[in-house]
Amino acid sequence: MTRSIDLQIMWDRLIAVVEEQAQTLIRTAFSTSVREAGDLSAGLFDAEARMIAQAVTGTPGHVNAMAESVGHFARIIGTATMRPGDVYITNDPWMGTGHLHDVTMVTPVFRRGRLIGYFASTAHVVDIGGRGFGPDGRDVFEEGLRLPVCRFADAGEVSRLLLDIVRTNVRTPDQTVGDMFSLAASNAAGERRLMAMLDEFATDDLAALSDFILERSAAATRAAIADVPPGAFANEMWVDGAEAPVRMAVTLTVAEDEILADFAGTSPASARGVNCPEVYTRAYAAYALKCAIAPEVPNNAGSLAPFRVRAPSGSILAAEPPAPVSVRHVMGHLVPDVVLGALHGALPGRVPAEGASALWNIQLSVRTPDGAPAAEILMFNSGGTGARPGSDGLSATAFPSGVSTMSVEATEHVGPITVWKKELRPGSGGAGRTRGGLGQVIEIAARDGHDLWINAMFDRVDHPARGREGGADGAPGAVMLADGTPLSPKGRQQVPRGARLRLLLPGGGGYGPPEERPAEAIARDRAAGYEE
Amino acid sequence: MAAVRAGVDIGGTFTDVALETPGGLVTAKVLTDYAAPEAAVLDGLARAAEAAGLGLSDIAQVIHGTTLVTNALIERRGARTAFVTTEGFRDVIEMRSENRFEQYDLNLELPSPLVPREDRYTLPERLAPDGTVLLPLDRAEAEAVARRIIEAGYESVAVGFLHAYASDAHERLVAEVFAALAPDLPVSLSSVVSPQMRELPRFNTVCANAYVRPRVEAYLGRLAERLRAAGIIAPLVLMHSGGGLMSVETARAVPVRLLESGPAGGAVFAAGHAAAHGIARALSFDMGGTTAKICLIDEGRPKTAATFEVARSYRFKKGSGMLIQTPVVEMVEIGAGGGSLASVDAMRRIRVGPRSAGSEPGPACYGRGGTEPAVTDANLLLGRIDPAAFAGGAIPLLPERAEAALAPLAAALDLPVTHAAHGVTETVDETMANAARVHAVENGRDIEETVMIAFGGGAPLHACRLCEKLGIHAALVPPGAGVGSAIGFLRAPVSFEAARALFQRLEALDAALVNAALAELETEARTFVAEVAGGTPAEARLVAFMRYHGQGWEIPVPLPDVRLGPDDGPALRAAFETAYRGLFGRSIDGLAVEVTNWALTVATPAPPPPPVATDRTGHNEPPPAGHRPIWEAAVREMEQAAVLPRSALCPGRAIDGPAAIVEDETTTIVSAGFRAVGQPCGSLLLIRKEARP
C-alpha cells in the first residue's frame, strides 16, 4: 500500500543524489565555465541506459545532450565486458555533448554483482589542446584532442597511457586531468549515496523505480502536450552566423501525445566552429518546448521522449564530422527562439518574443608592451530577453543559457584591464505592450600601455531579436571603439593601444502593440531612464 | 545577588524572553507588536521578572536579537535611500548575476533592486584593484551630487565605489562632503560596512545597511528609552548575525549585522548544549511553523560564512534573494514546517511546502478556517500529536478537520488517509534530510558522525525519523526548546569580525604588508569588543580566504597565528591544502595558491555551560506511561506506543520507543528504533537502540 509512497520518496532521493554528484563536481572543477557558469551535468541512468534523474544545472543544452550519451557507451564498451571499478570516457562531440571541451565520464553501477545502472557526468575542461576555445578551427581535428569512447579506469586501474596522451596534448595538463578525476569522483559520490538508499529501502534493483519515474514523467508530459492544439506550425529566423547569415527553419508537428520539431530548410554547416552536432540542437529544442509546455516535469528520458527533434544532416544544426563545432553554443542558444516562435502559432499568448539569446562571451588576450602574453580573460555577459505576454523581458539576463556573469573587480584582478562601463543600455528593449529586456553597454581598455586583443563571436548584430504580436524589435548589438569606430562582430582583432572597446549588447523584442502599454509602465520606464 | 541577565528575541510571531536568575532560567512568550516592537519587549520582560519574583531594575544586562531587520528587507519597509556609485556602474545591484535561478520558468520575475534606478547616482572616479587612483574624484562634482540628493529629501545614503575595499579615499571624500552639507543625514560606506572584493554583494550590503539604518536607529532609541523609563538601567547589548554580541552604537552604524540575529541565537543555543555534552560534531535542527533551519556545529561553535542571501523571493530558492556580505552563522533554510501545505503535482507525487498555512488560519485541525492539509494535520492523524494536549491544551485540535483536509489528497493517490498522511510526513522529512545531507557534503562533513540537537516546536516530532534517514545515531532535545534563541543570546560571546580584501600570491607573500593590515583589523575588532566587554580578555582568530590560482571561489583557512612570519608562505600553503583536502578529498600539486580576503575575529571566551554528564543508558525503573497507537514510519504501520509527560523522564530514567513524550510546547516522538534517556541537564537524549554500548 505504501509502495507508491516509497517510490515517490526514492524519486526525491535520486534528485538529491544527482545534486550531490553535481555539487562534488562544481566544487572541485578548475574550469571557469563549470564553476561560474554551471556548465556541467550529472545524472543517473538505468540498466537500459535511460536517464532517470538529472541535476538541475546551468546549461540546458548540456543537460539534455548527456541524456543520449550513455547509450553510446553501453553499445561501444559492451555491457558484457563491464566490471566494478570501471570508468569510461569520451569527449567526442557526436557521442557526448557537442564539442571537444566537454568531457563525459560514465561509471557503471553494480549491485550484488549485477549491472543496475550508470552514473554519468560532463564538465567543460579548461583546455583540450588544438586551437583552443574559439571558432577558428576549420575542422574538428584543429580543435583539439578527441578521445573515442574508451576505458578511463579498468576494474579500478586508471589507464596511464590515456593520462599520458591527455597530458601530452593539452596546455593545462594538471587542470584537465584534474577535472577528469573530479568527474570520476562525482560519479563515485553518487554511487555511494545510491547504495545507501538501496540498503535503506531493502532493494537491489532500479528497474521498478525507473519504470515508475519514466512512466509518470512521460504521462505528465504527454498530458501537457494533449492541451496543445494539433497541427503543423512553422517558423523561420535569420541570424548573423559566422561567415554568412544563417537561416534557421523549423516545423513543429503537434500530435496528440508528442511533438516533432523538424529543422528542414536550415542553412548548411559553416566553415567555422559555430556548428551544432544534432544532439546539441535536440537538447535546446527540447528545452524550449519543455519550458513552454511542461516546465514542472523533472528532466529524464520519460519527459524528453515525447519531444522528437530532427535536423537535416550536414546543416548548421546537424553538422557531421569533421565539421568544426567548438563554439556550437552560439547557434545552439538561438534554437529556442525559432522553436518558441513556431509554438506561438499553436499557443498564442504563451511564449515570449525573441531575445538576445546567444551569450556575448568576451574573450580577451592582453599582451605586455613588448608583446609577451599577460593574461587571457573570459567574461560571460547577457543581453535582454524577449518580452513575455504578461510581463516585460528581463534585462541583461541569460536565456536559454543559465550562466552567471563574473564580478568586474574579480576580473580586473586576473589581468591588466579596466572595465570602464558595464551598465544597462537604455532604449534597447523592443517597445510593446510589454517591453523587451534591456541589453547592456560594456567598455573595456587595457591598462599601462598593454595591448588588447578581442576574439569576437557575437550574434544579433545584423539580425535583432524580433518582437511578437506587433511588438517592436529589440535593438541590435554593436561592436566598436568608444570613439565610434566600428569593429567586426566576428573574429580576432586588436583594440588600438590606448583605445576603449565598446560593446552594445542586444535588447529583447517587445510583445503586443506599443500603444497598448499602460501609462504607469511608461512612467516607470521614464523615471528609471530605461528609455533613451 | 548575582547578576540577572535577560535574552530577548523578537521573532515573526512571538517575542521571547529568557531571564537568567540565581534561581534558574525563567521564560516568557508574548505576541510580537509590529507597530511598537519595544512594547512587547517590555511586556515580556515584565512578565518574566514577575514570574521570577524580581523587579525590572534587578536586570543587569539585556541582550537583544531581532528579525526586524530581515523583515524590513523582505517586506521592503525601509528608508528612502540614495545610492552613490562609480560612473558606468549604476546598475550593478539591478543586473545582479545576470542568470535565472529557475531554469524552466518562462515567466520568471527577478526581485527588484532595493534602491530603484532613479535613486542611484554616479560620480566620475575610478580606482585600480590595488587601490591606486585611475581617475580622481572631483570634490566639486561630489558636492553637486550631494546637493541633489539632499534637496530630493532622501532619508539615508549608501556609497559604493569599485575597488573601495582596497582604498576608502574616494568614499571618505563623499562622506566628508555630506557631513559638511547635511550632518544629520546617515551615510553608509561600502569600505566600512563590507570592505571585501566583489561589487555585487558589497553594494547590496551597503544599500541594505543604509535602507534599514534610520528605522533601526529610531527603534533602538525608543527601546533604550523605554528600558530606562522602566527602571532598567542595565546596558543593552545586541546579538549579531555571526553569533556574537555587539554594542548599540555598532548596531546603529552597521545595522546590517543584525540580520538573522534571532536564528543565530538558536544556533548558539544548540552549540552550548553540544559543548556541554562534549559533542564535537553536531547538527542543529530548528523546525517551526513555516521553515526549518539546519546548522553545522563543530567543537561547540556554529559554522559561519562570509555571505548569505536574504529575502529569497522564489520558494526559498538559492539565487532568488539578495546576496549580503556580512559574517553570519551559516544556516540552510527549508520551506518546511508544521504549517507547510501538501499538494499533489502533475506526476501524482506529494509535494510539501513552501506554501504555508502560517499561524492564521493555521493547519486545518486548528479549526480556524484552514482547509488544505498541513504537516501538523498529517502528524495528528498519525497519532503523533494528542489533540487534547496541543500547546498545553490551549488549542484543542480537530482530527476530523485534518482528515477532511487530507481526503482529497488521499483520493488523488488512491490511498487510505493514514497512508496519505504518512506520505506527507515522509516527503517533508525527506526534503529536510536531503537539504542536510547536501549541506554536509558541501562542507566536507560526514553527517552520520554528527549528533542532532533538535529544538523549536516541530523538530522533536521529526527528529527520530530524520536521524533514521540520515544515519545519525543520537539526538539531543534540550529543555526550553521553545525559546531557544533567547536562551542562546545569554550564552553568546562578545565578538567582532573585521575583514578586508588584500590580494596575495603565496610565492610573493609580503608579510609586512599583510601584518600591517592585520594589526589594523585587530585594533578595529578589539575596539568594538571592548565597547561591550570592557577589559575582559578576548582572543583573536585569523581566517584567510584562499584558492588555487585560476579558481573562482575561495575557501576559509583557519591560521594558527594572527600575524605572519616572513617565511610563512609554505606554512600557509600547508594550511590551505589541509583545508582543501578536508572539503574536497584531495589537493593538487604544482598550482600557485593565493589569498584574497583576511578575516580577523576577536571574541571573549563564550561563558561555557558547565560540562554535564551524559547518560547514555538510564538506570532507574522506566517511568509509568499510558499508551496509544502511533504511526511507525520505518515499518509503515500503526504501533502501540508509550505516552508520558516529559516531566516523568527525570534524569536517569529511560524509555524504549515507540513512545511519545509530551510537553506544552511540543511532543518528542521516539521511534521503535530509539530509546529516550532523561539527562541530568534536563535534556532528552534519543539514542539508537543498537548503538547502545
From TrEMBL, chain A:
Instruction: Give all residue intervals belonging to the Hydantoinase B/oxoprolinase domain.
Output: 5-514
Compositional bias per record (Low complexity), positions renumbered to this chain? 496-505
**A Gene Ontology BP annotation from the UniProt entry:** glutathione metabolic process
Cite a single Pfam family from the UniProt record. Answer: Hydantoinase_B
- Indicate, by first and last residue, each region the UniProt record lists as having compositional bias (Basic and acidic residues): 514-532
Q: What's a GO cellular component annotated to this UniProt protein?
A: cytosol
The membrane spanning regions, by residue number, are: none
Q: Which GO terms describe its molecular function?
A: 5-oxoprolinase (ATP-hydrolyzing) activity
Q: Where is this region: Disordered?
A: 465-532
Annotated protein name in UniProt: Hydantoinase B/oxoprolinase family protein
Which lineage is the organism of this entry classified under, starting from the top rank? Bacteria, Pseudomonadati, Pseudomonadota, Alphaproteobacteria, Rhodobacterales
TrEMBL record, chain B:
A GO cellular component annotation here is:
cytosol
Q: Which GO terms describe its biological process?
A: glutathione metabolic process
Q: Per the database record, which ranges form the Hydantoinase/oxoprolinase N-terminal domain?
A: 6-178
Domain Acetophenone carboxylase-like C-terminal spans what residues?
511-676
Q: Which residues form a coiled coil?
A: none
Q: Locate the Hydantoinase A/oxoprolinase domain: which residues?
A: 202-495
Classify the source by domain of life: Bacteria
Segments of this protein annotated with the region Disordered: 605-627
Name the record gives this protein: Hydantoinase/oxoprolinase family protein
